[in-house]
Amino acid sequence: MRWLAEVRVTLRPGIADPEGQTIASGLRSLGYDTVTEVRAGKLMRIAFEAETAADADATVADMCRRLLANPVMESATWELRADEEQQAAEAVTG
Amino acid sequence: MTATVATTARPRVAVVVFPGTWSERDFAHVGSAVLGWDVRLVWHLETELGTPDAVVLPGGFAHGDHLRTGAIARFSPIMRAVEAFAAAGGPVIGSCNGFQVLTEAGLLPGVLMRNDHLEFRCDWQWLRVERTASAEPWLADLADGEVLRLPISHGEGRYVADPATIDELEASGRIVLRYATADGTIDPAANPNGSEHAIAGIVNPAGNVLGLMPHPERAAEAEVGGSDGLRLFRSLERWLQGRPAAAERRL
Questions:
Q1: A19 and B118: CB-CB below 8 Å?
Q2: Which one is catalytic: B24, B96, B154, B237?
Q3: pLDDT tens-digit profile of B179-199?
Q4: Could you count the other beta carbons within 10 Å of the beta carbon of residue A33?
Q5: What angle do CA B177, B182, B183 make, to 5 degrees?
Q6: Rounded Cα distance, B90 and B83, in Å
């Protein structure tokens, strides 16, 4: 079964984020005076195969731990869903 | 069984090359033409280093620095051999991107993040040497408090680690190079990237693995503006002379 994971990697609280600070300063210079903080991060969409939802979730957790996030300064969260479009397409062509 | 093999005075040095590495030729030039070393470039897909006396992880942008600097290089096949060489006490130096690879591989703690001002910084930089603990082989010829002048060339050199790690590095004397002024003063104005505790270089607990953001290989001949980088390489030579050659160690 095919799954889609959306993984968000963000800097942990307390880790300075000069990129986010620069974006915040840009927003304020555009007139968005109420912006108090911007934190920049990464979004990754990962398509992969797994037997069950539990397997898929465990696989994403493993990917995050081994490669996608560096625990020294980052943490990862993710959303997981079955890739229904892909499965529907396979049903039509199959 | 043969008798003791005559020791060779020529250090054998393996320089690891990832796709995107850019300083391997400078290391090879300095090693071969300036120091007379036996230098071998080792492609990242190789699994053996040969029998080097030391291993170099040069600067550059390994694997395009995608995801994070050094994050993909860490999984290159040659890194298993580098890890084994380091664990056996072999001298390893990682400069710039090489330092980033060493932290991602877990051979050194912490991480190198975007410079606090977000600019790429290419300049000469003064560095204070700190030798309160053993930092051989790379700093064997350097004294505590000495000031070196080396080039830096990086966009992601801001050293970050959790407070417990920084405390442990400080307490164990493993911060061996700090960004400083010409007279060796640690001053925020002399810190080119916002590194915590002005950290420019650290060693592992055994002292054999050195990671540093500056480029010693770019300052090894007076013609290029300075030769302080030679101090590290001469340190290695002297340290190697003081121990049995590899052929003897195997007997």
A1: yes
A2: B96
A3: 999 999 999 999 999 999 999
A4: 9
A5: 90
A6: 10
